[in-house]
Design a protein that fits this description.
Layout (H helix, E strand, L loop, with lengths): L1 H41 L19 H7 L4 H10 L2 E5 L15 E8 L5 E2 L5 E2 H23 L3 E8 L22 E9 L4 E3 H4 L7 H15 L5 E3 L11 E4 L10 E2 L1
Parallel strand pairs: 3-5, 8-10
Antiparallel strand pairs: 1-2, 2-4, 5-6, 6-7, 6-9, 8-9
Helix pairs in contact: 2-4, 4-6
Protein name: Extensin
Keywords: Membrane, Transmembrane, Transmembrane helix
Organism: Sphingomonas gilva
């Protein structure tokens, strides 16, 4: 009798221990889920399943959500409208060479929530690139201008968006994102106090404000990597010594980026 009683007590003790362990794990899991819920409410931009909102800060998954707009031109236009980004549709260009052309281009205007002009005038570009430019200006370029140049951004110098060509102008090989206006090349920046910064002269420049100009250029390059699928700078190769190449190439489910 005593032996059976000990066995029953041992089984009851093991059962009770398992029950307590399960209860503890349930409480921990509930705490984790609730913590994620609270985090998601406060930081929706850092969750992969929330919808993109251009009014939100730049988050961990903002770049991937921008790239997703490659396949959703109507939604891209809605997001730009909601954020107050003024633009006009760009006339479509029919396919050239079987690879080039675009139908979902826009031209950013100097009005609304962003008024910074391009020099030459704002070029036609795919909508997802335009949306990233707006975020880049608000969250990266303007703050960097104030931090390093002690003034505000007043303009961009650009080298173009659409060019029906393969990468590096080769006769064969992969097509450039410029072939579909899914890229823009930025060669310099203009500021409200009249100064200019160019990549060719100021990436590793000398003279007055050289350190501030170099720091500004590197900060806006690094910040662009959170918004564009591809960012190429003078650190990449000689072909990019005079400009940033920014594009929204779709690299598949993993949404890997190139930041160089």
């Amino acid at each position: 009798m005593a032996a059976r009683r000990r066995k029953r007590n041992a089984r009851a003790w093991r059962t009770g221990r398992r029950t307590i362990a399960l209860a503890v794990w349930a409480v921990l899991l509930a705490g984790i889920v609730y913590g994620l819920y609270l985090f998601g409410r406060g930081h929706p931009e850092d969750l992969p399943w929330t919808k993109l909102d251009l009014a939100q800060p730049v988050g961990l998954f903002t770049r991937g959500k921008l790239v997703d707009l490659n396949d959703d031109y109507p939604q891209c236009r809605i997001l730009m409208d909601r954020a107050g980004v003024a633009f006009e549709p760009a006339p479509a260009i029919a396919a050239e060479a079987g690879q080039c052309g675009y139908a979902n281009g826009v031209r950013l205007l100097e009005a609304g929530a962003r008024t910074t002009p391009f020099h030459p005038r704002s070029p036609p570009v795919q909508c997802q690139v335009a949306a990233a430019i707006a975020l880049w200006e608000w969250h990266v370029v303007q703050p960097a201008a104030r931090r390093h140049m002690k003034t505000s951004l007043a303009g961009y110098d650009q080298l173009g968006t659409y060019n029906c060509r393969r990468m590096y102008g080769r006769a064969d090989g992969a097509w450039s994102e410029h072939a579909t206006a899914n890229a823009i090349d930025i060669s310099g920046f203009r500021f409200a106090d009249g100064r200019r910064v160019t990549l060719l002269q100021d990436w590793n420049g000398t003279g007055p404000d050289a350190a501030a100009k170099a720091a500004f250029l590197r900060e806006v390059r690094d910040g662009a990597c959170d918004l564009f699928a591809t960012v190429l700078s003078p650190d990449y190769n000689a072909a990019h010594a005079d400009h940033f190449h920014l594009d929204q190439a779709d690299r598949g489910a993993m949404r890997g980026g190139a930041c160089r």
